[in-house]
Give the backbone structure.
Amino acid sequence: MAGSSFGTLFRFTTWGESHGPAIGVVVDGVPSRLPLAEADIQYWLDRRRPGQSKFTTQRQEPDRVEILSGVFEGRTTGTPVSLLIRNVDQRSKDYAELAETYRPGHADFTYDVKYGIRDPRGGGRASARETACRVAAGAIARKILGPEVEIKGYMVQMGADRIDPARFDPEEIDRNPFWCPDAEAAARWEKQLLEIRKAGSSIGAVIEVVAKGVPAGLGEPVYDKLDADLAKAMMSINAVKGVEIGAGFAAAALRGEENADEIRMGNDGPRFLSNHAGGILGGISTGQDIVVRFAVKPTSSILIPRRTITRDGRETEIVTKGRHDPCVGIRAVPVGEAMMACVLADHLLRHRGVYGGCRAAPTATDPTV
């Protein structure tokens, strides 16, 4: 199967299935002598781990990471870093009835058409279980970026209910199970999601990921633009159906004088007066905050009967049993952060390899969109 690797210089390859004995990732292009321990990776995996609240799947996976190669005496060696995460709470019997039936909204039909075989146990390779590997790779990418680059993700919308930007509180993000910066919205979402879960349904979400402290000059025009790679990274996450950078689709409603991010001269260099571009112009970082949003569809595994067909073409109905997230967008937040980190680390290494470094990053007086 092609398509299991991501990146150019900082490149990772994931492997494993949802109900196999383990999943894992091999990360190549990691510079030597970086301090790296399992605890550095575990911190980020714990943020994505299932079963942490009543609003996520109750599958109990500790997601304990094991470093198999690429690290000696607490430092990276410059060789591939291989990471293993064992699966310990599979319940494959929940999927026995699905072996011959396609689940609407899932990859069952397309995998079967392409490969002539599929793993019905939790979706196999198409399962969001794979995203734990991305988070592990993202932990290493953060080591490359260093503490100067801060990446933070949060939910800004659940279903049709958006947060109020006037109530944005960064301290609130880690206080509720939705990674929501608006306490009032989080309270509403809790009530709504309990009702949705009780009804056996699910709902979608929009996640925003912001990277601060990114130096100007990252990105490789024309086809390896920083925003193009970010869009691909986010679109590759399970259940993501849309990505926008900066103002995104809202830019279509703006006039030219509104959308253009004006520039003045500050004490430390160029100073942008707005950030509709999301920190990227011409595919190259400006030094402002990089702002990405992505839309996650409702979880396809629901208890409400849906019409479908079997592998031999018989029409039927299906109810997807098992343990599933009523809003998969919640656990997509740390995954989006990880993919942002991986793209930025890749472009940072590419820039250093060709140009030797980055110019000082300009600052923006208004980094919001």
In short: The chain has a mean pLDDT of 91. The longest helix spans residues 329-355. The chain has seven helices and 19 strands.
